[in-house]
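Example S7 (structure tokens).
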């Protein structure tokens, strides 16, 4: 990933491990908030913000998904990045990039972080939400960017569902915590643990959580009941990567996701929602993950399979008929 130290770029491995060899994700450092009324100093305005993302990163993927779900694609620019092999971190897929709000042309994401705060010390990660007016990174915390997209742009965007309704917030928060610990962190632990004991601990947690989720989805259409919520879309980036990427690249090979009848149908249900396939290019996910500059340090050979047809029919509408 790499980081800036007092504004100077340094490429190194920023993963942190516990004594047991378990993977631990560092917290994000840019935590400002866009508000509908601008009281935070960052008002929800059309054309003001840029989302820097990457299909290689599941954390960034969910912000790109919410940009589509909340119909913000005409209000917030999306710029895609990918890891480079020359120790410069994230580079822009389309080549040199003129930073909105400036005349600066840059090649790498770390240059944007440094442009916004020349003396900052921070990891340089995606997603990153840039404000072209104040010329700074507003946030690089994916969960908070998702919330901003859900709640703060309603007055200037087309009407869309609320994915964090007040009456379900405690359930959504609990489910998000389960997905974070039992799926996100467990997958990374399986792929990046430095001891057999830590790997076994992660893999047990991961497949125990998948078993639990498959059971839950045998009884209801979505994670928190009969409506899609934020929890479903925080879960989705892990599911779509599971068989083509995590099974092989992260050693999550106890079972395929296709072996879970309810999870696999649920994945197809979400994938087939309008606009989602356009931000779910599995071929690009695989190419960037298995690139030598990717997150697992592979040799660039991309596994051919498995071939999973996410467009084939699912059975999740049976819950609507039962109601």
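Recovered sequence:
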């Amino acid at each position: 990933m790499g980081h800036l130290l007092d504004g100077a770029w340094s490429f190194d491995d920023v993963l942190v491990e516990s004594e047991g060899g378990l993977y631990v994700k560092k917290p994000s450092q840019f935590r400002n908030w866009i508000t509908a009324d601008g009281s935070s100093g960052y008002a929800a305005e059309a054309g003001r913000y840029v989302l820097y993302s990457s299909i290689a990163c599941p954390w960034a993927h969910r912000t790109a998904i919410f940009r589509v779900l909340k119909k913000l694609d005409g209000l917030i620019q999306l710029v895609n990045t990918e890891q480079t092999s020359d120790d410069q971190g994230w580079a822009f897929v389309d080549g040199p990039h003129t930073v909105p709000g400036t005349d600066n042309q840059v090649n790498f994401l770390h240059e944007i972080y440094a442009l916004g705060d020349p003396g900052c010390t921070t990891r340089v990660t995606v997603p990153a939400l840039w404000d072209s007016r104040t010329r700074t990174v507003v946030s690089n915390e994916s969960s908070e960017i998702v919330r901003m997209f859900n709640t703060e742009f309603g007055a200037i965007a087309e009407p869309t569902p609320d994915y964090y309704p007040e009456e379900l917030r405690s359930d959504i928060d609990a489910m998000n915590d389960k997905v974070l610990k039992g799926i996100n962190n467990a997958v990374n632990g399986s792929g990046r643990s430095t001891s057999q004991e830590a790997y076994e601990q992660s893999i047990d947690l991961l497949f125990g959580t998948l078993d639990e989720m498959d059971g839950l989805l045998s009884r209801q259409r979505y994670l928190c009941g009969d409506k899609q919520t934020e929890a479903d879309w925080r879960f989705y980036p892990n599911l779509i990567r599971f068989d083509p990427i995590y099974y092989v690249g992260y050693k999550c090979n106890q079972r395929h996701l296709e072996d879970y009848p309810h999870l696999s149908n649920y994945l197809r249900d979400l994938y087939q929602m309008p606009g989602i396939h356009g931000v779910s290019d599995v071929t690009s996910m695989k190419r960037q993950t298995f690139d030598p500059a990717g997150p697992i340090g592979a040799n660039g050979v991309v596994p051919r399979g498995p071939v999973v047809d996410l467009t084939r029919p699912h059975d999740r509408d049976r819950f609507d008929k039962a109601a």
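Notes on this example. The chain has a mean pLDDT of 93.
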